[in-house]
Amino acid sequence: MAETAEASSAPAPVEKIYLVSYPKVIMLYPTLVASLVMGLISLFAGPAAADAAEAAGTFDAMLGLIFLGVFTLNLIVLAFDFPRTTSLTLMFFLFAVGFGCVLLFRSYPDLLPNVTVFLQQLKPIANADFYLTIFGILTVIFICVFIGVQFDYWEIGPNELLHHHGIMSNLKRYAAPQLRVEKEIPDIFEYLLLRSGRLILHPSNEPRAIVLDNVPFIGWKEKKITKLLGALQVRVRTQN
């Protein structure tokens, strides 16, 4: 006499987990936010903070330097991958070098007078229209990205892995039981920005692994997948 594993009296609701691999352009959201903030500050606070033409130039130059700093850091995150150990070492090294250079040129302005004069004359100035135009361009790109991923995403159900792709909702099915999942964090800064990372799916009947890069909130997704796959295991007890 054979009995199947314990089952609850009420059937549990079918849970589905959706996975989306985003392009790296979504990591530009700090620049998107910075352009909006700088644009609004320049539009409303700029004239009030600037009593004279020279003060206005200094105020606008400060906004420009802040925006360029955020934009530069954002491009570095997009251009390079920083593993956990090397990224922290590089960050502290660059901070130490930059802070040391500031102290050096302030203490000894005649050490490299040409460099000192160049830094004093460096005043990147942009108006509110520039910042808000950058914000508008990035907003349109982000909207296009969010629309595009609606036609290319993965769905993990109780018994199968589904790949939805194409405008006509093309569908490819994989067996979900015995699905193996690996999580990787190739870039610590991308993880800090969107908690994103790489998921590697190994369906049991497929020779090739499925690699999904830039999956936001990867830790939360991985826990849900592990919980779902663990619930699929059925224990069988045999009684004579």
Characterise the protein shown here.
With about 240 residues, the chain is α+β, with helices and mostly antiparallel strands. It is about 50% helix and about 15% strand. It is built from 7 helices and 9 strands; from the N terminus they run ββαααααββββαββαβ. It has helices at about 30-50, 55-80, 85-105, 115-120, 130-150, 190-195, 220-230, and strands at about 1-5, 15-20, 150-155, 160-165, 170-175, 180-185, 195-200, 210-215, 235-240. The protein has a 4-stranded antiparallel β-sheet. Strand 3 and strand 4 form a beta hairpin. Helix 1 (about 30-50) packs antiparallel against helix 2. The chain is elongated and about 70 Å long. The chain starts with a strand and ends with a strand.
